[in-house]
Structure formats: C-alpha cells, structure tokens
Amino acid sequence: MTTQVQFSTFNFHNFPVRTITDPKGEIWFCGTDVCNILGYQNSRKALQDHCKEAGVTKRYTPTTSGNQEITFINEPNLYRLIIKSRKPEAERFEAWVFEEVLPQIRKTGSYSQNVEEIRPLEITLKVQMLDNLYYMAKNASELCHQYRKMMNDIINALNIEYFRPSKPDYKYQLVSDMQFALDDVEVILKTHTREQTVKNIELAKLRRSF
Description:
Layout: E1 6-12, E2 15-21, E3 27-30, H1 31-38, H2 43-50, E4 56-63, E5 66-73, H3 75-84, H4 89-108, H5 120-158, H6 170-192, H7 196-199
Antiparallel strand pairs: 1-2, 2-3, 3-5, 4-5
Helix pairs in contact: 1-2, 5-6
C-alpha cells in the first residue's frame, strides 16, 4: 500500500476530471470538475445539497497556478451527484467512470485512455449486439417456421406430392446456421474469458428470445 496521495486526470468529452487515490486506496474526484460535467451551475451549493460531509475532503493539488486547495468527493457522493443531475450525459458519465475509469485506476494506480485490453464497457456493447442478433434470428426463425407450415398445409390439403420440397429451403437453413453460430459465441464467452467483469455479465439474457 502506498503512503502517498496519487494524482490522476482523465477527460470525459473534453471535460477534465481530476482524481486522487489516498494511502488507503480510496479514490476521490474533484467536486468542481464533476459538477461541470453534470450541469451544476453552483458547484459549492451542489456539494452542500447532495453530498454527505464525511465523503468530502480538501487537498492541496498541483495546478497551473501552483498548489491550490481543492475539494474532492468520494465514490458514494459522486453517485449522489449523478443521480440528482438532469443532464442526459449523466448516465453516460456514470458508465464511463464506474465501468472503465475506476477499474483501471484500481488496477494500475492511474487512468490511461490508450488501454489496449478490451474494456468492460466495450464488452457490454458487444453483448448487446449479440442480444440484438438473437432477437433478429428468433424473428427470422419464427417466420421460416410459419412459412414452411403454411406450405405444408397447402400441399397436404391439395394432395400435391410433387410440390413437396426435397430438402430444406436455403433461407431456412441459413437461419438455422446463424443460430448455431450464435450458440458457439455464447459458449466461447462462458468458457474462455477470465475477466471477472465479463463473467458477471448476465449472458443468460442473450437466450431469453428462445
């Protein structure tokens, strides 16, 4: 455990957010920076109205004008400001901080915007894309089943044997192949990933369409 305060800065849509990590490993966020992003016009009032005093601290921080005393807030107070914010960006800011910035700070002690590893947020977006593919496959599969059932009903009703298809329709087979491929993707995600953030994703939701 380090005995010094570590400073770090990251940017959210060109808005800087200064953070510090204290000797206990707790991460604090510059209150003014957070309020600017979340649309609070009076940062001091916002901190007084929405933050608990126990989660507010003042630290001398290096700035372009030298060391200045700046107010920092802890994670619970950060979340309180996000909840009370009326800006649409609040939800995206929450996802950015809690799914990308915090894990990276805890892992390396600082935040880097050039992280080479797959980020949890990116993984979540990929899972959502898979979810959409399952939804599309389900609808296409149902239409193919209905189409083949109607054709079989007509053929049986008219007793026209030579119209009965000798092999599955190409589009129907393509949909089936798509479903098998998506099944393989889910198995790979479940069995070959080691990141805890991925394991915590509810992959079961990808199967809710079936």
